[in-house]
Amino acid sequence: MAHRDDRAAPLLAPAPWVEERGAKTRITAVRTFLTAPHGCAHLVVRVETDEPGLYGLGCASDPQRTLAVRAVLDEYVAPMLVGRDPDDIEDIHRLLLNSAYWRGGSIGGNALGGVDVALWDLKAKRLGTPLHSLFGGRVRHRAAAYTHVDGADPAEIAERVLAARERGFGHVRVQVAVPGADTYGTASAGPADPAAAAAARERRVPWDSAAYLRTVPRALARVRELVGDEVELLHDVHERLDPRQAMTFLNRVEDAGLFFVEDLLAPEDAAHFARLHAASPVPLAVGELFHDPQQFVALLNGPDIDFARLRIPALGGLTPARKLAALCELRGVRLAPHGPADVSPVAQAATLALTIGSHAFGVQEAATFRPAVLDVFPGTITPDGGGLEPSGKPGHGVDFDERAARRHPLREPLEHERWALLRGTDGSVQRP
Ligand code: GCO
Ligand code: MG
Fold first, then answer.
1. What is the average pLDDT across 384-409?
2. Residues ≥6 apart with Cβ < 8 Å to 311
3. Looking at residue 59, what is its pLDDT?
4. Could you say which DSSP state residue 342 is in?
5. Predicted confidence (pLDDT) at residue 1 exceeds the cutoff of 50
């Protein structure tokens, strides 16, 4: 959807130096496109310029508030950017952040992130260079990627881990279904696929932390016995334990030799990471829910975590992400960027432009998208042999086919509801 052209001329003048010296290139439009070739909302931002054929693409995908993010972009951000020099990424980032005054939150963060990635893509395309080259080039052949498996029975899970290993993955996230309890990332939690999830909308299965603590550490240890030490295992607690339960979980899961435990606590309990991190050798990963870079800074000072799970669109884009990557390197924390299928291939490639060239790298979450996604996003990078490799094309290398996108309209813009369905055994609403 184009931004509204019926507005008065923006109050905000272009930057002073552009007023004085002019600009080689000007932004002529910022357009948003909502599409769902994978079933979940992908919100694409295209920043267009007065140079024929020169545009940048970003990703502002926020499955739970996608229509709000689109409104921020169309109503507030787009009119402010028309006429600006797309080269001034830092200036634009700061003025957009300040124009919201109350800072961004996840909605503002995703809107800002969509524009920011598009501007970096545009800059690199204009220079005819891959985005990672702009950031200092590569430091590794490929970025190790992890894939997801889940199941109820350790033997069944182990089989799936070994199958992922066969496909070349050295890192596999393992989620364990707990009979009678809703556990994130497993069939009992309502399938990840939004269409199937809609059918599971009335899921009545409660979250049961006691059952989770009894079952999951033991199952993870058994999976480790069955698969051996040649493959890294990860697990996502998905913010469902309180600090006391988290300590119990870490004690019980120590023998599974996990690469990391993700979202052991909710962001609201982040103050407890210091104590838990000091008390246990189990590596901790957190951050997909952080939309303010300062939330990471607080944990990097200790450091109280081992891996930073940056979700680049929500954080406000590559501009803040690059600063955090540098801080992670200086603080001995490694990047493990977030990237399931509900971030688009544009965001996955933009994230890779950062991880392929950062010495502070651990592993990148990678989606294997449905074939329809590859039609909508030509240049989509698919994990190969357990890793991601940049295409070498100018920019982040992923394009966007508007016509193909229209064939996959978003059927369920209100996907957020299922994230509010989870209740505990006492009936209280639980973190999803
Ligand atoms: C992960 C995440 C996701 C989130 C999803 C929310 O580690 O991949 O936890 O699965 O639940 O991105 O929309
Ligand atoms: Mg997660």
1. 97
2. 287, 288, 289, 290, 337, 338, 339, 343
3. 98
4. T
5. no
Residue ranges of E strands in 152-268: 171-176, 232-236, 260-262
Contact (CB, 8 A) for 394 and 129: yes
What share of the chain in percent tops pLDDT 70? 93
Hey, where are the domains in the chain? Answer: 134-392
Tokens of 190: 């309502």
SS3 helix, strand, coil % of the chain, rounded to 5?
40, 15, 45
What's the angle, vertex CA 115, arms to CA 400 and CA 298, rounded to 5?
Answer: 125
Q: What is the pTM of this model?
A: 0.94
Task: List the shell of residues around ion ligand 2, using CB closer than 5 Å.
Answer: 236, 288
| Amino acid in position 190 | G
Amino acid identity at 356: I
> Is ligand 1 within 6 A of the CB of residue 148?
no
342 lines ligand 1 (CB under 6 A): yes
For residue 185, which atom of ligand 1 is closest to its CA?
A: 10
Q: Is the pLDDT of residue 49 over 70?
A: yes
Tell whether the model's pLDDT for residue 241 goes beyond 50: yes
> With a 6 A CB cut-off, is 63 part of the ligand 1 pocket?
yes
Selected from 3.20.20.120, 3.20.20.100, 3.40.50.150, 2.60.120.10, the CATH number assigned to the domain covering 134-392 reads 3.20.20.120
- Say which ligand is closest to the CA of 189: 1
Whether pLDDT at 116 is above 70: yes
Residue 224 has pLDDT above 80, yes or no: yes
CB neighbours of 132 closer than 8 A, spacing ≥ 6? Answer: 138, 352, 353, 354, 356, 357, 390
The residue contributing the CA closest to ligand 1 atom 11 is 238
Would you name the residues annotated as active-site residues?
184, 238
Q: Quick one: CA torsion of 246, 252, 258, 259, rounded to 10 degrees?
A: 30
Answer whether 287 contacts ligand 1 (Cβ < 6 A).
Answer: no
Closest residue CA from atom 8 of ligand 1: 340
Q: Which two tokens stand for residue 274?
A: 């210091």
CA distance 32 to 72: 10
Which ligand is closest to the CA of 194, given by its number? 1
